[in-house]
Queue: 2 jobs
Job 1
Amino acid sequence: MSAPAAVPERPDGSGDLERSVRIGVVTFPGSLDDRDAERAVRLAGGTPVALWHRDPDLHGVDAVVLPGGFSYGDYLRCGAIARFSPVMGPLVERAREGLPVLGICNGFQVLCESHLLPGALTRNDHLHFVCRDQRLRVENAGTAWTGDYRAGQEITVPLKNGEGGYVADERTLDALEAEGRVVFRYVGGNPNGSRRDIAGITNEAGNVVGLMPHPEHAVEALTGPTTDGLSLFTSALKRLVSA
Amino acid sequence: MARVVVDVMLKPEILDPQGQAVQRALPRLGFEGIADVRQGKRFELEVAEPVTDDVLARMRALAETFLANTVIEDFTVRVEEPESATEPEPAVEPGSAAEAAGDGARA
């Protein structure tokens, strides 16, 4: 086996700034996609930093990814126990101050349980686990994680969840729509009964984004259906470099 | 030792696909006439100290912040008296209709 693909160094050294951006990836007991998230950060040109759930220190990272998986076995509710992990204290605090945070699948569930994002994820309406390549429409290209997309652009990334139905009360849903906080919407069929086909949302400030599909599994032609997911990670890097 | 019981149910407006699946299976099993099934969770908290109003308030906070997600779930908190401390009740067959009716009347 060869070593993980390295991003080619640019002769003019223009990738150095991105490489200096450190993006933390939290591992909870039961996280599955932390390594893929780290790999996506590396392929996008950044430096991934492994964060541990019991360590209440973000080690000075510039952004954080909460990865997919089944933290604490999905006991109680998906993400409900992870939300009270030591690492989540400083993370919630920094996220409220503007730290870019991306929650993917179980990470999205943790963000909702932490009240960094409104609503909740519930059992898929058809009760089956879904695993497929999913088309999405980018509805908001203005968040910290979507600047490299165009609004209206369609992308395809893997989706795999049993509890991915996004729910919130009508007032919250109306507010999300009115404020442009629906970031991704399912296209070509709603896979899990999510209200208003919502696949991903953001907070008011646009620094916290959560989505059920897995952009970190669509960053290389060899293993992903597309490389459409890479732009989430390059978006954050660009935002942080120019900040 | 006292027992505090927390019941958590999905809010009425939240779809309960698990309850629906249970309900759909009932006619196959010969149980007719059950119009709806909602599935919930019951937590039994064994509390070492006497359950004062203060303790009960803390249990309520625990239920609100952790055991239930109030975005999608409602919860009730109640103290269950140890059986020896209560008046002897008329004998009830486990799972009988009388017991079910008594349980349903707690709310």
Job 2
Amino acid sequence: MSSTTDARPARRLAVTGALTAALTALAVYGVFFVAPEDADQGIIQKIFYFHVAIAIASLVAFGVACIAGIAYLRTRQVRFDEVSSASVAIGLGMSVLVVITGSIWAKASWGTWWVWTDPRLVTFLIVLLLYAAYFVLRSSAEGERRYRYAAIYSVAAFASVPLSFYSVRVARSFVHPVVFTQSGANMPNSMLIWFVVSQVAVLGIFLTVLQLELLQRRADSALRRVKARLEAAA
Amino acid sequence: MKRFGERRAVDRVDVCLDEGECLAVLGPNGAGKSTLLRMLATLLRPDAGELSVCGRRLPDEAVRARALIGYLGHDPMVYLDLTARQNLELYADLYGVPDARERVDDALDRVGLLARSFDLVRTFSRGMAQRLGLARVLLHEPRLLLLDEPYAGLDAAGAHLLDAVLADASRARGVVIVTHEVERGVALAGRLLVLRAGRAVLSEPTGPIDGAAFRTRYEELVA
Amino acid sequence: MVLFAILAMLIFQFAFGSRLGDLTPFAGGILWATLALTAVLGVGRSWVPEREQRVLDGILTAPVPRLVLLVSKAGAIYAYLLAVEIVAVPLLTLFFVRGQAPVDVALVAVVCLLANVGIAILGSLLACLALFARARELLLPVLFLPSMLPVVIAAAGATHAVLGGTNDLAEYRGYCLFLAVYAVIFGLVAYATYDHVFDD
């Protein structure tokens, strides 16, 4: 039963956690104190750094969930399901943040709390529903079926993400054939560097929370195993 | 080994059956008999251990194995909205049975349903539907018959039929029959497997075992 | 099922029509909103005989590859949708569209044929996931509709491009291409996962 006394995962978590904390502190400092202010939008524009970083991180999370799902289907090892479901949970949480930060930004930029014209915002609303369904599916099945169905759905849902994004964007582009410049892929370097830093920091947050979650689940199931064994022996 | 959640439904059961042999699987409710049978029928995948049926390793060669297996469970597995004939023709199609027309007629005749062959199964009694199920399972001449409490839904005519089918050793088919009727199992089978809480507590040839005498031994085993 | 589609279209008319008069710009949207909901019903019904008449085990123990099973169910859903569309599209033009040429309806037919593929594949796969659930009438729409949204967006857009009064063929082609891509991608997803759906 080395998994209960194996200190390696906990140590890995400590390392990731420390690195992430440092990076996050750096990113917050850099974004709010060093990066130049946007001429038009002022301080609210700073939210943009994290908004996009979290959006990309959540997509990474869903990608990880998809890959872990495929791995589960191939090997039927429950640890892949653990990774998959934890990643979806984190991705979903991040998606909520994307929608919230996007809404704040919409209020700052256009005066209303919600707009249908931002393809990213709309896509993440769809993504929220897509992955909320993941948990509904999980609760509807039991045992091995739960892991298997969840894995299949994690693949289908991840395929839906780019399809949703492109359908919304294509629809917008026909109605408003103007290319959006709110993100500005051509950012000055002074902004770009802090963008990258915050992106890495948020990815670090994802990894840290994932490890934390996995560690906790393994402890949980180890505890349950011991309990079952004690009850059987009694 | 097959696990459902934390519970091991079937654990460390070693079974080996030769052609033409009949194995009776006995045991109390919840012992894992149906689960074992479903694993053999390729409906369930084992979580650990090896499984091969008619020389085909599962789960890799499942499709080929299925062609050689006939599985009859508690339900006859026929469409209520189709006629008896249509059901058998469908299954003949699924199993790639040659000369389907004749074989379907033959099967319907054997189970005594030829007269009702154009009637919807919805109009059948439980016994008749189960007889149709029996026809279905024999239609493709399987090399291995897997029967789960087959006598449960059968009427008297059907029971006679099944007896005849099982006694027909000339077909050289293997049979695994799950039943809770201890005496009948002992009478029919050449080998016995008794399960209790997922484990095998007895696995041996029947030999000249007396049904009644075995009964007491069985009660002890599953107590 | 056809009746349901007609009723759904009437709901749209009474929800919006009394205030707006000419619903032509919304015809595309109304059609695909109706079809999306009808599709949920159709997909939900696709396994009913096997489940309620307990034939599923019989089919699963037959030497039929799982892929064939899924494709045949997808085919059934496709046929079902087509049957509804044959009635719904003409009715749509009758109720909601002012001044259209017959060729427009042919273009809409193409949209239907394309969109149905994606819906059928998706529906066939997801129906299996909801097969054994207790609240399957609730689960299936929740699973099915979010993934269906791109189809609704694109199909409604394509239909609107033809029927909505603008007649923009470049737009139409763009949306149709998207529908084809959608079908291909979900075809791949289904192909990658079909073997595991029934593999208990």
